Amino acid sequence: MEINKQRLANMQKAFNCIVIGTAAGLATYAFFLYFHIDIFGWNLGLLFAPLAAGYVETYMANKILGEDIGAISAFILFIVTVAYGFIINNPTLGYNIITIGSIVIIIQAAIPTFINYFGIVVLVGTLSYLTGFFKKITDNIKYTLMPSKKVEEQTIDTIPLFNETKSNKLINSQDFIYITSTDPKDLDYEIIDFFYTTTILPRNTRIIKLSPEKIERQQLNELKEGKDDCLIKLADEIKKAGGNAVIDLDIIYFLNGLGGSEFQIVARGMGVKIREVHLTS
Known about the structure:
Strands 3-5-6-4 form a 4-stranded mixed beta sheet, with helices on both faces. The chain has a two-stranded antiparallel ribbon with strand order 1-2. It contains 8 helices and 6 strands. The radius of gyration is 25 Å and the shape is flat. It has helices spanning 2-34, 45-64, 72-88, 97-110, 112-131, 133-145, 164-172, 212-240, and strands at residues 38-39, 42-43, 177-178, 189-202, 245-256, 262-274. Helix 2 runs parallel beside helix 4 (97-110). It has 3 domains: 2-110; 114-151, no CATH class; 156-274, Translation Initiation Factor IF3. By secondary structure, it is an alpha+beta fold.
């Protein structure tokens, strides 16, 4: 019951963040409309309103919930501004460079991860890979600054496998119980509070000439180590508050940054104190 209440409270907080973000976007759009801030009949609020909505919502969500909830308000403002600017207020605007460009910019504001990833990472990355343009520049800079050092190529043999045994020993040494069940009825416990921790991992862009299999192994190693780090930090936070376990444990993985330049791992759950279990190291 307490856990369900906490989930409802988190949903309410997320809804409030979306409302605040939407309100900020509407206020921005109204400001641009009121002062007629236009370029060739195209109001700049079409661009800045979704940006303002998404920024405010993301900022509030990270402050209150500790995670990004998807900039839903940016989608709402995208629909509102397009409906008002292109259909209700100016249905005869027609198709031209300005209208097409504005729609592209609005989509960029509403779904930046999609546009940035496919428009920048895939397109530019593919071209640079085929031509070797950026690699030549970076290699020249590296050899100029560090002439005595050569660029080392990692092979699959130099990328160690993740040591599951060592990882399990590390987690078990925390004198802490991790439970994914929402309500373990066979345990006598006292709920303390809801906790979450996060770990940010930059995606490794320094490994050159690796096959997809090698890159995948490297990234999986980093994600597993990041997950362990997140779980240990979560246990430390709960133990500081007097707990010895977490229930309803949830681990979430995100791609953040321009074109997914970094991983974010979030471990969250309800911190509890189990009364009838004696932990041993």
